Amino acid sequence: MKNIEIKTYDELVKKLKTYLTEEEIKKVTKSYMIAFEKHFGEKRLTGDDYIVHPLNVAYILANINADYQTVSAALLHDVMEENKITALELESEVGLEIAKLVEGVNKINKLSFTGDNEQVIANHRKILVGLSEDVRVIIIKLADRLHNMRTLWAIPEERQKRKAKETLDILTPIAHRLGMSSIKSELEDLSLRYYKPDAYFQIVEKLNQTKMERENLVLEMMNEVSTILNEHNIKHEIKGRAKAIYSIYNKLNKGKKFSDIYDLLALRVYVDTESDCYQVLGLIHSKYKPLPKRFKDYIAMPKANMYQSLHTTVFGPGGNYFEIQIRTYEMDKVAENGIASHWSYKEGGKANLQSAMEQKLQFFKSIMGLNDTNEEEFMSSVKEDLFKDSIYVFTPKGDVIELPSGSTPIDFAYKVHSEVGDKMVGALVNDNIVPLDYELKDNDIVKINTNKNSIGPSKEWINMAYTTQAKSKIKNFFSKIDKKDYQKIGVELLNKELRKKKISINEFLKEENVNKILAELKYSSLDDLYIALGNYKITPNIVINVIYKETESKEEIILKKAQNRKEELPVIKNDIIVEGIDEIKVNIASCCKPIPEDKIIGYITKGNGISVHRLDCPNISNLEERIIEVKWNELVNKKYPTNLLIHARENKNVLLDIIAKTSNTDITVLNINFINNNDNFLYELVVSVQNVTSLNKFMNDIRSIPNILDVERSIK
Ligand code: MN
Questions:
Q1: Protein residues with C-beta less than 5 angstroms from the ion ligand 1
Q2: Of 279, 282, 445, 533, which one has the fewest beta carbons inside 10 Å?
Q3: Is the entire prediction scored with pTM above 0.85?
Q4: What is the mean pLDDT of residues 69-87?
Q5: Gap from CA of 12 to ligand 1 centroid (Å)
């Protein structure tokens, strides 16, 4: 069905007749007549009459059974440009609902979405979604873009690249969130073709080279699986699956080799019922060895965009990996068309469909994080909601729970009982799975799924919860857990050191010894001492030395002390300024560990904010399109870790000399590694330092030590 271009209205009507009534098609025809007249005489760069574009946008939507209002609006989506018709005129011709959809598309088409960094792009996605009061506006926009991408060959190369990038940045993530994977995947492949033509055609060629072989393998596997399922009387269909080029590109980009991409051999099994899905899975696993950790149950745990399927990867014929997806036909509709699959559900009538769509849009807005945006003016209505006092929601049994407006399922769970909160694994609102930061509304029926084996809440919940009560209960949970963890680490550290020194643990922990240690080191209990050990506040040797006199050389002690210290890259908040953006996650790259006064550059990671590298870090060359300018915030006055490599002629006393050079400076040695490298002695130091000036001075000091050959900053 993909890539079929239609040229006439008759072709569209043929499709519409498969699911719309005569009455509805008449209304679509009226819209077509207006569009035809308004675009008459206009040409596209492809050479076609302009009307071919709206016709095809409508056709793309008809293929997902869009309602007549959406198809009509698609035909009219460009008529408001250049004031060919006013909103009022349009409304009197086709009615308020269609006119509103057209206006909506027109409004978002006027926005120009150019941006170079992740935050700006994310904001654009939010604005686009936030501006669309009706989710159908976004769906029309996606179809509009899809047809424009199919005909992108007609525009100049520079604009092709820009459109392709915008599509990847703004529109495909939205299509993904809406679960519209078939449109998303076509948009991605088309975008890649124009944005990175070399990479695209390289993959196409590779796929072609291996096509025959892969098809034969898949066919063989399909036959085998089909035979097993027939033996067990399971009605099914099996199809091979073409692999999206963009997803291969992504995997190659992450450093995978072409031959290592498992799901190149992929098939999909369709069955009638959910229980068939699990039965098929069981039969496949009993015949073929599954690859550990590749099994995913998206039926029990659907993805946020409603996607459901079972995924597994197994060793098939010839020792090849096959990726198998198992789903019902209904799940398939949702998987392909996501939110738009609701158009196919006839039952419940129009009103229900509309409210289902609205609910989904609401849900969508909430996962796009729109509910906590308060700067945009158009969000004022959302703000009003936030300032309302209380909401009343129900338990599945019908009990009323009052919560402040803005509460999430987390607040609900902790309000019911701490235990419910601590063991929560998911939440359903009105029978729909919702994210835990979903904002509850009046009259919502909230069901909390718990699992008694759950290890407890996630730290992120502290930010997702709205009520102080829930926040403090979560914090409480962690302070208990943290203490236990540190205590355990402390016990291990001390025991390890005792074993190393061949001291009996029981002997060491005699009551009189423990009392002496606690008194000398000023801890009130052995547990507290262990927590301090686990926190690295004191070292095991300090404890041991209370009882046993120190027998180690000074150098050994320094080395151990330094090695026991935990090295952590500091939490970066406002330390680094990304021009024009406030709230973005910034990390210091662990390969080159820049410090203030270093020339730095930001690299936009996929989904993990910006990582800051030294300008000369070799790990970021060739990644130009993800690079953005960043600078140190001069107001922040803090120390940062960085790595030094020290070459020494011999290792006698060198370490002591190095450590001595840190006195009277702001430099702390966090970690030392000694590498004995043939005739060369190498020390790898992690130091915490304020800036380059201070580091350079330290490095010069080290160079003045006898037997030191050189010092350099290292990059991993
Ligand atoms: Mn258009």
A1: 78, 144
A2: 282
A3: no
A4: 91
A5: 17
